[in-house]
Amino acid sequence: MRVLLVEDDEPIAESLRRGLLRYGFEVEWVTTGAAGLAVTTPYDLVLLDLGLPDTDGLDVCRALRLRGDVPIIVISARSDETDRVVGLEIGADDYVSKPFGVREVIARIRAVLRRARPESRPQGPQSYGARLRVDRKAARVRLDGDEVALTPKEYDLLAFLTEEPGALMSREQIMEAVWDANWFGPTKTLDVHVAALRRKLAGAVVIEAVRGVGFRLIVAPDVTAGGPASPAEHT
Fold it and tell me: pTM for this one?
């Protein structure tokens, strides 16, 4: 997976580049809008700073969008809602305000790529350990062979978290994927639904909370492989 990084702040760019490399991405880093628009090698996603030395990043975003549908995530120190709205309206797929953590950017990249390529999502019944089975075509969940009664949002949340067991998903990423792509506001409803899943699927999966970031789903090991895991929360 190749990422075009357009960022003139060297410390930020180097931090992002190292983080992306650790997660298996290839990175081409340029420091100006003109250099970004001049790149001819194929790339799968763009991380675009708005505060570039030669031009406004919004103009670069607009030009990239006119060329095709490559996913674009804007990264900027501008936290004003107007900039967010304008960026999204001219074609950006997401907007991350500085300062940010590399893990948050990785989570947003995964979310944007997942939305851009829905065909890559698992289809049909999938088993997660020895006890849990999720049938995405039928929208049904079975625990030890018995169907589990989940609300629609509980099911959507579980289906999303089980797409990548073990991956840390940010709160914003989960809200955008499960509730609304343009969700803004408190995320307390997410905690309520996580608590419900923990209760209904206790012993089969662990939904870990990482304070200030989000959640990750861990499939509990089979009893024969060392005993069941108990739900845990990292705060």
Answer: 0.54
SS3 41: coil
Side-chain-side CA neighbours of residue 211 (13 Å) = 3
Closest to 87 measured CA to CA, from 50, 115, 52: 50
pLDDT tens digits, residue range 95-115?
888 888 887 888 788 788 877
Residue 47: its H or E element = strand 45-49
Per-residue burial over 168-188, b = 16 or more CB atoms within 10 Å of its CB, e = otherwise: bbbbbbbbbbbbeeebeeeee
Phi then psi for residue 97, to 5 deg, are -90, 140
d(C-alpha 169, C-alpha 84), whole Å: 21
The two beta strands, 132-135 and 146-147, are unpaired
Per the CB < 8 A criterion, the answer to whether 107 and 23 are in contact is no
DSSP letter for each residue of 80-94: -HHHHHHHHHTT-SE
| pLDDT exceeds 80 at position 233 | no
> Do the Cβ atoms of 132 and 201 come closer than 8 Å?
yes
> CA 146, 152, 154, 158 torsion: positive or negative?
positive
Which one, of 19, 9, 28, lies nearest residue 75 by Cα? Answer: 9
Instruction: Provide the pairing of β-strand 45-49 with 2-6.
Output: parallel
